[in-house]
Amino acid sequence: MARFIDISKTDNHYFADSNGKTWIPTGCNLCFFRNSENFPDETVMATYKEWLANFAAAGGNFIRIWLGVPFFDVMPEKPGQYDRKNTSHIRFIIETCETLGIKIKFTFEHFRRIMPDITDIESYAGAALFHKPIYGELVRTMSEYFASEECRKIYLDRAKYFAEQGFGDSEAVIAWELWNEINNTAPMDEVAEWSDYMIAELQKIFPNQMILQNIGSFSCPWAYKLYDYLAAVKDNGFLQVHRYLDPGAEIEACSGAMDILCSDAVREMQFRNPNIPVIVAEVGACEANHSCYSHLYEIDKNGTLLHDGIFAPFFCGSAGCGQFWHWDHIYIHKHNLWHHFAKFNEAIRGLDPAEEHFKPFHTSTTRTRIYGLIGKKTVIFWVRDKESNWKSELEEGKEAQIISGEILDSVYGENQFCDCYLPWEERHIKIQLKNGICEFPDFKRSMVVRFTR
Length: 453
What we know:
By secondary structure, this protein is of the alpha/beta class. It has helices at 41-57, 84-100, 121-125, 127-130, 142-147, 149-164, 188-205, 222-231, 258-272, 296-299, 304-315, 339-347, 353-356, 390-395, and strands spanning 5-7, 15-17, 22-23, 27-29, 62-66, 103-109, 173-179, 210-212, 239-245, 278-285, 359-364, 368-374, 378-385, 402-403, 407-408, 417-422, 427-432, 438-439, 443-444, 446-452. It is globular.
């Protein structure tokens, strides 16, 4: 039986449904409700319903949920002992997404220690989220956990429990992710052996869905080697990358403009494995070395960070938009920025990237950076102002300026009309190419240009 969503047989850089129709994931993370244990279940479910309704209304069609957090943890007290109430919470998410036409990637686990190290203040502060003491009678370290046959059986029995609940039969569920940023748990040789085993076993349990692995933020020199590993993992459904605007990162791109940060990440993935779809599965902004979410969120009421994180990956050849982190009262929902997903959907409306067999290109003009896709019939590119970015707008308080009179020469077209979509104004303008020269209309921050070859 074909999977509900799988790699497109027309072009393996993109996705398609079981009927062969190209599917473009317009997604973001909705992984958990922070401190859910301090709120009534009704409040958590009502909040999720509001997030999902707002997201779907903007054309969002793909989310990620962590199954190891308190609200969704089906095994909170004892290994092998399942909680019906938390199971019903997962079913609620699935049924809501089925109604709204949203697809789900479930992340099985995310913990990084068995017991918290109370001598480590940072570890202790995050203990509720990143440790799992229910395994304390079986193992003491993550290395022991990954080597334990009993712990492997518990992991797989939990997967079988999800399958018995019918979660593997829902067309809303398209992927199961083994672990969040598993490189933060144990040495990679131990993790790699465990991952290879689990991918094969989970594929037997969930034959209609993709099985995935991911690793941490591509921000430091060691990340190059980690992503070399990830790109070569056998039967990994598609290639994911995490990257944040991080002033403490050693990789220069991570402290630059958001579009450069994203485009560099996509190109690094395509270089490592050009034969499967690439998704920027986590993108956002943090304080130095992921110590906290970024102070820029409070200032970014217009969503300039979000806009770039959504648009840049797709126009660099990713299979979908960038999947933003910090979706709740910290950023997206706080400032009601869901409309940026609608702008992305408007920009790509009617586009079939698999049928086009798009090839990415990158160029620039005096004032702009240009990320584009050249297809069999269509050329489409996203134009980004070089001078306007998070530093100029959010830290220095300089308003984005109108760009006038910018010209792109040697465009793949002659004397024909093309469509210019101005997402920040939510309007389209028709212009004419003149002997392969595109004279841009006036615009602010960014613009999408499309024409038929």
